[in-house]
């Protein structure tokens, strides 16, 4: 089908005798002599205005097509006399692919609530806000790949079905091949218990110890029943892993990645970001630009606790050395204290996963989290325990069986090296980029407790 994307048509340098644009009608106004139809094809935020003169074949083709109908408009691209846009199409021919009954099409021209649109997730990508969000999602993914490739990382693919629990938090979805009602779970996955991965980290470590620098980027699953605006049961995670690297190296990598994606979005998604700055989060653009203007703050966990203790704030969860930071603490640090992203490092070992490298103080591990305003934790990572004896002792201390980690321990037996990596939640990154405050609105079909409809 010969057609011009609206994004290209709007960028034309000269009028054109004939083009065809296809899309969905956003608005239609009928005057005595002509109909004025705005269509959007998803290639950009802006609609193409089309003028369809009354009494013409084009007008007949348009028929009574209304908001939501899909159309192809062929005609002349001419300078638009109205303000706001350079070009419009004077229709010579209009073809309707599929009508949308105005009595039942739910996306009529008015502001709909996020809540309402979540209930029609299969249609909400036809609105300005969600179209923009998913275009930014695509551009952000591209920026992630570009960044890693520019730094000589290989994109690796780790399994989604796995036998191990990387985070040791017991938050895995169990996969079964058994008929409903069957009780013998030991026969789960062709004789083994299989889970959906909570993190590709352990496999990424193996890959990093052969390829040097790797990253994963794919779906990740957590069976935590946390009904919060920041947690989803299925989310996308970016997990770089670097051989011959220490904590400092991944702090730099995490900051570099975040800033690169922000920079890319500011250049490539300008009009979509402006929409969010105007209607969702006033101050978004200033905040994003501010992230490029100065380096992220850094503070040890111990000092962060002191800052929180001295803040005079009445937190719901009290703070003291040894507690896991809650979103309210993370947001206070990033939003109110440092007023920019902050990297917190050297967390108490008691609250962190078994694979994190022990520091010499015996009390903390070489872990770091990147906290950003309005979101809290964007990145969590660590230097990995590369010393076999220390790792074995930690596995025993946590009551785990070394046999379950035989291949992971091999990585420490054969050519072990200092290595480090982190996980960045892709949806959290998008919340940061758009100002959207609910994770359900940055992924097309969210998987959260109670949502499995689409
Ligand atoms: O801090 P987490 O749990 O770290 C790991 O899984 C490590 N294995 C990563 C690594 O070192 N390779 O998760 C990493 C990030 C979090 O900082 C957060 O942004 C995101 O993943 N995340 C979630 N995003 C949405 N919904 C959830 N339920 C999430 N859980 C974690
Ligand atoms: Mg974490």
Automatic annotation (TrEMBL):
Stored Gene3D superfamilies: Bira Bifunctional Protein, Domain 2, Nucleic acid-binding proteins
GO molecular function: asparagine-tRNA ligase activity; ATP binding; nucleic acid binding
Reaction equations catalysed: tRNA(Asn) + L-asparagine + ATP = L-asparaginyl-tRNA(Asn) + AMP + diphosphate + H(+)
GO cellular component: cytoplasm
Keywords: Aminoacyl-tRNA synthetase, ATP-binding, Cytoplasm, Ligase, Nucleotide-binding, Protein biosynthesis
Subcellular location, record wording: Cytoplasm
SUPFAM superfamilies: Class II aaRS and biotin synthetases, Nucleic acid-binding proteins
EC number: 6.1.1.22
Root EC class: ligase
Domain Aminoacyl-transfer RNA synthetases class-II family profile: 130-444
Main location: cytoplasm
GO biological process, one term: asparaginyl-tRNA aminoacylation
Domain of life from the UniProt record: Bacteria
One Pfam match: tRNA_anti-codon
Assembly and oligomerization: Homodimer.
HAMAP family: Asn_tRNA_synth
Family according to the record: Belongs to the class-II aminoacyl-tRNA synthetase family.
Name used for this protein in its record: Asparagine--tRNA ligase
Species per Swiss-Prot/TrEMBL record: Desulfovibrio piger
Lineage of the species this protein comes from: Bacteria, Pseudomonadati, Thermodesulfobacteriota, Desulfovibrionia, Desulfovibrionales
